[in-house]
Amino acid sequence: MNLAYRMRPKNLEGFVGQEHLLGKGKILSAIIESGNLFPLIFWGPPGSGKTTLARILANASHANFNELTAVNAGKAELNEIIKKAKVNQENNIKTVLFIDEIHRWNKAQQDSLLPYVESSLIILIGATTENPSFEVISALLSRSKVLTLQGLTLKDLEIILERGLKELKKKIDKPAKELLIRLSGGDARIMLNALELSAQYKDINEEVVKEVFQTKSAGIYDKKADEHYNTISAFIKSVRGSNPDAALYYLCRMLNLGEDPKFIARRLIILASEDIGLADRGALIQANEAFEAVSKIGLPEAALTLAHVTLYLATAAKSRAVANALGRAQKAVIEFPNEPIPLHLRNAPTKLLKELSYAKGYTWSNNFVGPNKDLPFLPEKLKHLKFFES
Fold it and tell me: Which of 100, 143, 278, 375 sits a CA distance of 20 to 30 A from 351?
């Protein structure tokens, strides 16, 4: 067992952080004191204690704890737990089902949980790093309490690090300690994994910490670390630069390191408008349909869809006309935020407004080709401006 697993607290006394949920009179403290557990969704950054809290809650409620990781678990694994839950129910034992990265399950998979949550056969605790409002179906949200976990503070991480050093019977100098905490990006798991690797050296110093964080085995690729942003940047720039080979390489690299496929799909939707725009009107359609497909099927099959849309966008004609026009219009709004709208463009729902010349001169009907082009559409001070250039 690795250090992070060995150090996982089994009760609240050993847990570090999340005082806003665990302090006196707070919701999780109340649940633990009462033992009355109900469905929960933990939303928070990696390494903030979501899994550990779920275990502590299950233990405090005297419930049987079962864990699934949405990335590699499906219907078969769920059915096994449901069978066990039915046996537990016959023996008056509660069953907690913890699903890590629940946002990775598509709508159909999440729907399959509903009858068991509704009947209280299982007490669901879902964990997600993504906004549950977008990633968890509304039917589950309405039956659960969403709790937001905060990233661990520097003080929290230092406490955990000191415990890890004690467990390993190792010492570390102050500069190396500060570097280890900083490079962990607020993720206790990454920090402890890196500490365990660093402990293989005779002395733990800054050079050792830097060396450890160059290795993939330290778990360095997280959604807030530099490598995350470097890789998505390289991917987007390769698509934008019409290099399909480089784009595919960075796509596979992100997926291999555990990046959320929906995050990639969302970035491609943005790129379709920003860097392709009107040069290929099908680009946005392709990107949006790819996001829908990825949301429905999940990994590993979603990799095919992402490769498909990546190649389409990388080989499409490019144009920044939409982005440039938007930028110019936004700048104009900042400079002229409250210019009077021309009277003929205003809404005229009442007789009084019509008498004040609202909507006067503007005509439109099914048989009318268009309004009078001589009428100004922009406010008076902006009529000389041109935002869109085809």
Answer: 375
Task: Please state whether the predicted TM-score (pTM) of the whole model is above 0.90.
Answer: no
Expressed as residue numbers, the domain containing 196 is 154-213
Cβ count near 251 (within 10 Å): 26
Q: 12 lies in a domain?
A: no
Q: How far apart are CA 191 and CA 285, in angstroms?
A: 42
Last-in-domain residue among 128, 148, 168: 148
Determine, yes or no, domain membership for 327: no
CATH number for position 29: 3.40.50.300
3-state secondary structure of 146: strand
pLDDT digits (tens, 9 = 90+) for 121-165: 999 999 998 888 888 888 999 999 898 888 888 888 888 888 888
Among positive and negative, which fits the CA dihedral 15, 11, 9, 26? negative
C-alpha span between 279 and 138 (Å, rounded): 37
Q: Does residue 333 lie in a domain region?
A: no
Nearest to 231 by CA among 207, 193, 189, 263: 263
Q: What is the number of domains present in the chain?
A: 4
Dihedral pair phi/psi, residue 100, rounded to 5°: -80, 140
